[in-house]
Amino acid sequence: MTINENLKMRALRDLDIFVRAADCGSLSAAARQLDLTPAAVSAAIKRLEAELGSVLLLRSTRSLRLTAEGLLFLDHCREALGLIADARAGLASGRAVISGELQLSVPSDLGRNTLLPWLDRFQREHPQLKLRLLVSDRILDIFRHPVDVALRYGAPPDSSLVALGLAPRNRRILCASPGYLQRCGAPSDPRDLQNHNCLCFRIGDQIHDRWRFERDGQSITVPVAGDRSADDGDLVHRWAVAGVGIAYKSHLDIAHDLAAGRLVPLCGSWDKETLPLNLICADRRQLNPTVQALLRFLRERCAELAPET
Q1: Which of 83, 147, 253, 256 has the greatest CB tally within 10 Å of its CB?
Q2: How far apart are CA 94 and CA 121, in angstroms?
Q3: Number of other CB atoms surrounding residue 22 within 10 Å
Q4: Residue 198: its pLDDT value, please?
Q5: What gap in Å lies between CA 34 and CA 49, rounded to an integer?
Q6: What CA–CA distance (Å, rounded) separates 42 from 192?
Q7: Measured CA distances, 222 to 194, 196, 202, 211, 255 (Å)
Q8: Per-residue confidence at 307, pLDDT binned at 50, 70, 90?
Q9: Bigger pLDDT: 140 or 289?
Q10: Pseudo-torsion of CA 298, 302, 303, 305, nearest 10°?
Q11: Mean of the pLDDT values across residues 80-96?
């Protein structure tokens, strides 16, 4: 390794030491975690401060606190170290054999009707991998449940979670079966939904009965109602195909039914709600070669199924 390479590696190490010291709130605690001496940790912080020309940490004999510059620099350090960790994991995934067990939580409709054949293919490509699936629309606390990663629509409920986009521009589709439309007619405007039987999805005590639409900069929210609702997205999907009513479903969930004509998109001149699909985990260190391979695989399948996403 050249002198320049050594200096670059030391600079990265200094960034890691700074982040660890900020998290621990103590140079000595950071030193214990990193198996270094407090003097080595202090020297790393001093090198950073000298290079930046700014004081990052205010130290006392018992504790330390971040300065305003230190807080700003800390955010950039976390981002940079995260990107480097992702790059290293990506390189490793190209060399590693995908094996072991992966515990994956997936939504009901997406899991049963779209992901199952995809995951079958993924396992055929990686026969040493074991999958353990938890299929549910409940919002799991992935810190408490035995789950490695989860697939979820929308922004994660906890901002501390790591969310990696699989289909960032996925949208809901307003849809109904040809049979329903023959009996009840098709709404020409989202506000006409108040005169239709709408199939609503619920999680716990919250029901998704206010559907949003946009057109030409105008945004409207339409309150809807119907004779049934479910806390299982797959049931809402099945009711729509059976001709019971109108549903507002993720494009990824119903793309095959749209292509086969079992469901018909409605109110095409209006833009529907964005509903991004993300792969979520609790910590970037969980982005091992298996998860990295799954991430790439699912991004490719989502793009194939719904290219506009």
Answers
A1: 253
A2: 18
A3: 21
A4: 98
A5: 20
A6: 67
A7: 8, 12, 16, 5, 24
A8: low
A9: 289
A10: 140
A11: 68
